Amino acid sequence: MKSLNKTLNHFKPSIFSQMSELSRRHNAVNLSQGFPDFSGPHFLLEQLKNEITDTAQDKNQYAPSKGLPILRQVLAERYRTDYDLSFDPESEITITNGATEGIYLTIAALCNPGDEVILFEPFYDSYLAAIQLVGAVPIFARLESPNFSPSLSQWEKRITPRTKLVILNTPHNPSGRVLDDSELSAFSKTVVENDLYVLSDEVYERLIFDQQVHRPIASYPGMRERTVTLSSAGKTFGVTGWKIGWALAAPELSHGIHMAHQFITFSVATPLQWAVAKALMDPQDYFQEFRSHYQNLRDLFIPPLMKFGLNASTPQGSYFCLVDTPKTFENDTEFSNYLVETIGVSAIPCSAFYSQTPPKNSQVRFCFAKKPETLQLALDRLKRIDL
Ligand SMILES: Cc1ncc(COP(=O)(O)O)c(C=O)c1O
Question: Are residues 266 and 122 in the same domain?
Fold first, then answer.
């Protein structure tokens, strides 16, 4: 028989699904995969019911391929009001099946086989897979713990005449780092000087804590034309199963993104787009509550970990926190296996976010987007860790 596609058959099932499966097998508290164990806001779920059963206007047929006009208009309004960025709903916005589809579409729209793409480790796993699927070449730079800042001296060296794209993620998964103005400014200068494109993954844009501010990289001088901004209603409304995302970019780039989308999934679930559009019309009170709810969960979970003698980081954004592997364990994989099998709590070993060799001080990632009682149960078990 002739051989199958080499790239796809070389991929392995994702660590996130594997850890959830291990969690089930050991009856562990699942703090590994990144999703809330509580429902999205009541008003959003009610809205969806209304949209699905709206008999006056059947909202259960195909949506236009680019996305519902109402959702694209509302998004344009959000970016204008919240970030002072203007996007034309007709030619610069595509609604995607979650940000994950947006990642693939962006890389497919920009890269020819052999083009180089710089990505910062630790990274969300679908970046590398998308690069490999289109035949582009991944080039790795490091975000060093504990700061997780894209050090210019480090990543500038990776730029060659073949570099096409660099992938940025803030707030960052898995570290929870929110890049500040000076870091974004330095990053954007290098991008412009070297005539690169940026895929900016901003799915946790609304999940920022304390005094942090999220600044889209597209708002920096010279960046508007060379950035694809991606985000997701799954994160913003805590409904990861809805898979509604968006990609914002200049018209020519948006055209490529839309063409890839048109022939891969064609369009995104219509009633869900209606519900998200209505929810994004006037969301400021919701955003405020959303943020403080997650901040409370963060503050419920992390201080006790430190009391137990674990070295846990306090994230500036996202719903993840990193914990150093205690010296008594060989590495993060051994530690996370011990956690799920012996302690009854699952976490992701951070080596999964690296292409090859993870740093020496390896860490595990916990997701704290869980009900207070789930976090309390996890803490009751984590107390028993033998350090
Ligand atoms: C950094 C990052 N980007 C993208 C995604 C995927 O977003 P979506 O569920 O909208 O596809 C995730 C989900 O965990 C993520 O952590």
Answer: yes
Q: Could you tell me if 32 and 367 are in contact, meaning their C-beta atoms sit under 8 angstroms apart?
A: yes
**Distance from the CA of 13 to the center of ligand 1, in angstroms?**
16
* Ligand 1 atom 10: residue of nearest CA: 98
Same domain for 213 and 98, yes or no, is yes
Could you tell me the distance, in angstroms and rounded to a whole number, from the CA of residue 352 to the centre of ligand 1? Answer: 15
The answer to whether residues 123 and 209 belong to one domain is yes
234, 256, 282: which is the final residue of a domain?
A: 282
Separation of 127 CA from ligand 1 center, angstroms? 10
Tell whether the model's pLDDT for residue 105 goes beyond 80: yes
Query: For the segment 19-45, what is each residue's pLDDT rounded down to a tens digit?
Result: 999 999 999 999 999 999 999 999 999
> H or E segment at 247?
strand 244-248
Ligand 1, atom nearest to 101 Cα: 11
In a domain, 362, yes or no: yes
- Same domain? For 122 and 12 the reply is no
Do 175 and 89 share a structural domain?
Answer: yes
DSSP class per residue in 41-61:
-HHHHHHHHHHHT-SSS--SS
How far is it, in rounded angstroms, from Cα 302 to Cα 296?
A: 10
Find out whether the beta carbon of 203 lies less than 6 Å from any atom of ligand 1. Answer: yes
Are 247 and 120 in the same domain?
yes
Q: Report yes or no: 29 and 344 within 8 Å, Cβ to Cβ.
A: yes
**Residues 235 and 185 placed together within one structural domain of the fold:** yes
Query: What's the domain range around 367?
Result: 6-41+285-382
Q: Do the domain assignments include residue 51?
A: no
- Going from the C-alpha of 100 to that of each of 17, 203, 207, 378, the distances in angstroms are 15, 10, 18, 29
User: pLDDT digit string (tens) for 211-257?
Assistant: 999 999 999 999 999 999 999 999 999 999 999 999 999 999 999 99
* Closest among 238, 180, 229, 183 to 207, alpha carbons compared: 238
Domain boundary among 261, 282, 303: 282
Q: Does 199 fall in a domain?
A: yes
Are the C-beta atoms of residues 382 and 343 closer than 8 Å to each other? yes
Q: Is the CB of 236 under 6 A from ligand 1?
A: no
What is the position in ligand 1's atom list of the atom closest to the CA of 34? Answer: 14
